[in-house]
Model the fold of this input.
Amino acid sequence: MLAAAEHVLSTGGIDEFTVAAVAEHAGVSVGAIYRRFTGKEKLLQAVKEQLMAQLETTVAEALGSARPELADLIGAFTRAMADTFSHHTRTFPELLSGQRAEGVERGLQALATIQQLLTEAAKPHLDDIRRPDPELALRVATRTIISSCVHRAATCQSWPDDLSWPEWADETAEIALSYLTSPAE
Done:
């Protein structure tokens, strides 16, 4: 059901997202959807929860398998963000626009979680960060990566940058790493 819901959301947008359309795409009755979800909003919340959990897992796995060097951690983090968003290019913009308070809260929770994951992974490398306050610089770089990714996902349909998601990840990681490793003047 959630795969069908994501498909309907990504192909038809929020205006076409109905319980009936999801049921039709899933090959189940409308009643089957209502037995699991109390309505369209709960179904949307479930899609968002699944995507946010996937983002958290993808980032955690990428950081866990990265070489323990600052450049590799920043690259792994940025590529994990890009990988998750690239597989849901049309879904994220729909989920990001017109959210209810609980949807915003879950999104912010996921972003805080992935920021914490990178911050913890990079702590042994704070000496490699040449800014006056390395911890602050790391948080700023992490939030900049996250914000850039979210912004790109929200606007890529109407304001394309002609980069693939992997190209975007490489360029963004390079910018963040340059900031972190260049001394403040």
Observations:
- Residues 44-181 form a domain with the Tetracycline Repressor; domain 2 fold (CATH 1.10.357.10).
